[in-house]
Amino acid sequence: QVQLVESGGGSVQAGGSLRLSCAASGYTYSSNCIAWFRQRPGKEREGVAKIYTLGGTTYYADSVKGRFTISQDNAKNTVYLQMNSLKPEDTAMYYCAAALGACSWYRGDYNYWGQGTQVTVSS
User: Fold this and answer.
1) Helix and strand counts by DSSP (H, E) for the chain
2) Residues 84-98: pLDDT tens digits?
3) Which residues, at least 6 apart from 3, have a Cβ–Cβ distance to it below 8 Å?
4) What distance in Å separates the CA atoms of residue 80 and residue 116, rounded to the nearest whole number?
5) Per DSSP, what are the bridge partners of residue 79?
6) Which residues of 51-82 are buried (b: 16+ CB within 10 A; e: fewer)?
């Protein structure tokens, strides 16, 4: 079992920054990758960034590339999502998720999910 707890969400004006944290506990060594997903109002949940826990390779959705950075601190079992140049369309509930096997953008690949943290960007 892997437990994930997100934090760091909040309200910010367009152009501002936030850093989300995803603290993992349990059998964290079994995770192949950790990803951040978001669900905007009325939209499907979508992947925005992911990091392979062994090696640290990262991938981003086109909508956030160049603005968001995913990173990990293995000593703290924590994955971060630094979000810069935020836009109103980034407003969403953000979730972190852990995959034991395949790590596509398909949410079905992910075995464990956190409860989410809300990000609101005002214009």
Assistant:
1) 0, 11
2) 999 999 999 999 999
3) 24, 25, 26, 112
4) 13
5) 22, 72
6) bbbeeeeebbbeebeebbbbebeeeebbbbbe
Token pair for residue 122? 């005002």
For residue 49, count other CB atoms closer than 10 A to its CB.
26
pLDDT of residue 29 exceeding 90, the answer is no
Separation of alpha carbons 8 and 81, rounded Å: 9
CA 28 to chain centre: 16
How many residues appear in the chain? 123
For residue 61, give the H/E element and its range: none
- What is the structure's pLDDT at 123? 94
